[in-house]
Amino acid sequence: MKRLAGLSALAVIISSTSGCSWLWGPEGYFRDRGTDYLDARQTAAMQIPPGTDVKRIDPLLPIPSNVADSTETPEKFEVPRPQAIQVDDAPNDFSLQKSGDSRWLVAHRTPAEVWPVAREYFVNSGYRVVDERPQTGEFSTEWQAAKDLAPSMARRVGSLLSKEDNQARVHVRIEPGVVRGTSEVFIVTVERPADSTNDVAFPARVGNAGLEASLLDGMLADLSSSSEHGSVSLLAARDYDAPNRVTLARDGNGNQVLHLSTDFDRAWSSVGRALETANLRIDDINRSAGIYYVNLAEGASKDGDKPGFFGRLFGSEPSKEELEARAERYQVRLTSSASGDVEVSVEKDANTVAPEDVVRRVLSLIQENLG
Fold first, then answer.
1. Nearest to 188 by CA among 211, 217, 157, 160
2. DSSP 3-state of 7
């Protein structure tokens, strides 16, 4: 009945408006007024009574004389479209961030775009890359003394080492940023005496803080001065190695979980993006509890999803009762482990684990869309 009423209303509207010149004709209410200004004429200035103290007001939109006096008025005139505003955001494309002794570079580029230019920066500076893994966004250089580097880099490195003739290695890691479409570049260094042949492992976070800060400053200047970098690494564009960074496992109770080798902030952002990319509806979030509330019965909510006039008229919008009846609500929970990594689980509620097939489906979708 609702659809029939909508069709009847549409038929009445069409029959009442078709052929009505008072609506659409040259003198109709909805006529084209785009050239009305061509018929405007300039009139005499307003007369002010004598003795009145007034301040002259110039017309805000004076009518050009050549338009007002023109005798060749076109029947149709199309106003030219305005030129697009050119926005130059290059100065904000790269920035340095700092937290305690840790520093890193943030680039508004994907890891695939940052990888080749970061590698090129170190190669051009005289470093020899010996271990590179584009799939995980990492590369390392071999042991080198400052004198083995390019002159400008040699002066910078030599003054920042514990001893000028010491040898040093550099490890660079490029990760997807917390904000989608960005990258974060981390540099860690390690050094050893010139006469030593022992291999020294890279520290977990910070080695020579001064040297690492200097290398990041140099990379920032190099990236910012380059107006365009056209090369993209196809290897770095692939998903990061799932076995090393994302793995499906079982928790202590035998429930399936997704194990992320990263900190909570990055995991929270990555899982949220993965849910959106997988077209899963997020009804609500609780950042402090680490929970995404999802509805598997609906697709991801997007701006402009609401039906238009005709959609509402013909009853295509489901009612709240219909939406509630078909809802499949679950909780995607992120939990930090003792090792500092993050485990992702799927639950029906705070006290009930979701069915095994639902857990496997949701975790697989998250794993496929991470990166």
1. 211
2. helix
Q: Which of 215, 232, 241, 80 is nearest to 154 (CA)?
A: 215
DSSP letter for 227, please: S
Question: Is the separation of the CB atoms in 186 and 175 below 8 Å?
Answer: yes
Domains by residue range for the chain, with CATH: 91-236 (3.30.530.50), 242-369 (3.30.310.170)
Strands (E), 57-203: 94-99, 102-107, 129-133, 138-141, 144-145, 167-176, 183-192
Q: Which run of H or E residues covers position 293?
A: strand 291-295
Contact indicator for 218, 121 with CB cutoff of 8 Å: yes
Vertex 233: Cα angle to 268 and 138 (nearest 5): 55
Q: Which amino acid is at 300?
A: A
Q: How far apart are CA 349 and CA 331, in angstroms?
A: 6
CA distance 272 to 151: 46
- Contact assessment for residue 118 and residue 140, using Cβ atoms and an 8 Å cutoff: no
β-partners of residue 170 are 189
Distances 31 to 25, 28, 135 between C-alpha atoms, Å: 6, 5, 61
pLDDT, mean of residues 316-335: 78
d(CA 199, CA 192): 8
What digits encode the pLDDT tens for the residues 239-276?
Answer: 444 334 678 888 878 889 888 887 777 778 778 878 88
Q: Which of 55, 275, 180, 338 is nearest to 283 (CA)?
A: 275
Amino acid at 212: E
- 168 vs 117, 139, 203, 204, 206, CA distance in Å? 22, 15, 13, 16, 14
Of residues 169 and 350, which shows the higher confidence score?
A: 169
Residue 297: what pLDDT?
Answer: 81
* Angle of helix 111-124 versus helix 209-225 axis, rounded to 10: 110
**Which string of DSSP letters, residue by residue, matches 139-170?**
EEE--EEGGGS-HHHHHHHHTTSSSTT-EEEE
CB 147 within 8 A of CB 164: no
